[in-house]
What does this fold into?
Amino acid sequence: MSFNDVPFFFGSAAGGFILMAAVGIQAAVALFSSIPLTRRRKETCPDFNIRAAYRRIAQVSSLSIILCAVVTALVIHFGSTGIIAGYGLGFILAFALNLKRMSPNNEQNRKSYEESYADCYPASDATPDDTAAHKRAVGGFESAEGEDSSDGQ
It folds into this structure.
């Protein structure tokens, strides 16, 4: 690796880091965090649609892995040694820095899981209109017209 390859090394390291941080980590989180959270959900909520959750995990994981594999193959095929080494370093660095995020016990993962897989839960008996009416009746919430209902109006 010559002195002229140093900018390409750091540029490809940044590219590998960005690709892994943006796409690859999503696949890792889906595999290492969402699968255990899905199993826990099935135990606590027997009506949870586990097939839909696993299908979504498989889609996210497979698409992310395919994208990372294609970009990696292109870098290896067309890149020089410095570019390949930089890309690999950035990829590994992004993975290492996000290891804690891949845990199913991570609070951010639990919140994200609840939002992403909300449609896998069984339908509730309360409709959104009933819930909004209940909130307005309790007070302190904005009404549909945007006025504050806590002052008696």
Observations:
- The radius of gyration is 23 Å.
- Residues 1 and 82 are 6 Å apart (CA to CA).
